[in-house]
Structures are given as C-alpha cells and as structure tokens.
Design brief:
Layout: H1 3-24, H2 31-51, H3 57-80, H4 86-105
C-alpha cells in the first residue's frame, strides 16, 4: 500500500476517534474526551497534510469526509444507539459508492 493511502486511512481513523470523543465530551464539559478531540483532530489534519503531497485536495477531502461520515454514523448507531432511517442508509451507501467510483475510475486520485 502506498504511504499516502496509509496517511489517509490514519487521518480518517483519527478524525473518527475525535468526532466520537466530541459526542462523549458533552459539549466540552468532560476533560479527557475533550483532550482526545483536540489531539485527534490535530493528528488527522497533520496526516491530511502529508497525503496532500501525493493527491489533490478535492479528492483527499472527498475521501476523508465521506469515509468519516459513514464511520461516524456506524459508531453513532453501535455505541450511542442513534438510529438511521432508510433514506439515511441509502445516502450512506451512495457516499461509499462515490468513494469507490473515485478510486476505481478517476485519474485525479493521485498526481
């Protein structure tokens, strides 16, 4: 796996951890989840910056935000009991499909 994909995957993971901690921070009233939010987002943006050496910002952001949305929705369901209706599930599937299309067919996915 090329290093830039590893950076991007780790950036998505860090963002997902940060957003999960954001929910757990209770509007930044709990210290440890709040610290995790700040550290995770800082790490995520650093890793995104490394990824931008190899891929254009629009593609990187589409993949990072799209995967983050889908993962956070799954975590919201599994950990926080947040339900999704059928239109939300279809929308999430379309986001994943969009990422797959970019990866399989776009010549813009890497410089």
């Amino acid at each position: 796996m090329p290093a830039h994909y590893l950076y991007l995957i780790l950036a998505v993971a860090a963002e997902t951890i940060g957003t999960t901690a954001l929910q757990a921070s209770k509007e930044f009233t709990r210290l440890m989840p709040s610290v995790i939010v700040v550290v995770s987002y800082a790490l995520s943006f650093y890793l995104l910056a490394l990824t931008l050496r190899f891929m254009p910002v629009g593609i990187v952001y589409a993949i990072w935000s799209g995967l983050g949305i889908v993962l956070i929705a799954a975590i919201g369901y599994a950990i926080f009991g947040q339900k999704m209706d059928l239109p939300a599930i279809i929308g999430m599937a379309l986001i994943v499909l969009g990422i797959v299309v970019i990866q399989l067919f776009s010549k813009s996915a890497s410089h």
